[in-house]
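Contributing new records

If you add data, match the layout below exactly. Sequence lines come first and carry their own label; structure lines follow with theirs. Keep one chain per record. Anything else will be rejected by the validation script.
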Amino acid sequence: MSKKVFFSGSKVVSLYLFLFLLLAAGFLLPLFFNKTISSLKTAEISLPPPAAYPENFTGRPLSFLTARSAVAIDIDSGTVLWEKDAQVATSPASTTKMMTALVVLENYRLDQVIEVADLGFVEGQKMKLVPGEKISVEDLLYGLLVSSANDAAIAFAKNFPNGERGFVWAMNQKANELGLLKTNFTNPVGYDEPDHYSTASDLTRLAIEAMKNPTIARMVATKEITVSDLSGKILHPMSNINLLVGNLPGVKGVKTGWTQEAGECLVTLVERDNRRIMISLLGSSDRFAETKALVEWIFENFTWEEFTP
């Protein structure tokens, strides 16, 4: 009687190969899944922290403001705390100089020396530059941002490649880059002209960008300073025309403005209790009092709650 053969030689080899692959899969699959899980855990760690969102817990509305347009924004959450016609284009006056400063800092070194050209008649606020004087970009910027000197703005523009036209072109290029869709500049000062306009919303965005620059942040928070030409013989004493700097707790700048058409304008950064608020008022009858009222209303009525999306 012949014996039954359950597995031939080739089948035995196939069986051993199958068992080997099964054992290998059992060993390698956990390693693969552990690696995948590990990478997923890493992704979870990289998620942004919960944001704190402001809420008016009292429900008390802000009293009437004379400003034609205004907006107050919590910078960190991007929440609009209060607004009035914030998208309406109007004359920005010397708040324009925030953009002037950004263009200067992108194209000049602080230690670079400018020889002041004959600027002719300069209307409005001045630091009283003398034709032919040589002054550093840094000291000229103090004039632009502390005393809102129109002659400083024009001196920068005249020294620019292609002169004032080239400077204004650079201002509008920067506005486009920042997404300021309802803003257009025709001069570096803020003089009233038909095609020179912005909005409270755009100016707030511009101010947030400007305050990222430590030079601008330092200068707009300066209450008083005296700068000079290179010889030290021509002095330019100046005081910050933003009366809230040093007088209202938490105010860090940013820029004032006034013309007959624009009315009183003020863009203000306030930092209190680790909260950063940017406020823009245009066309106000009392920019300092109304900004102060808006600041106090915000911190008396809003609370910040942690929210995880």
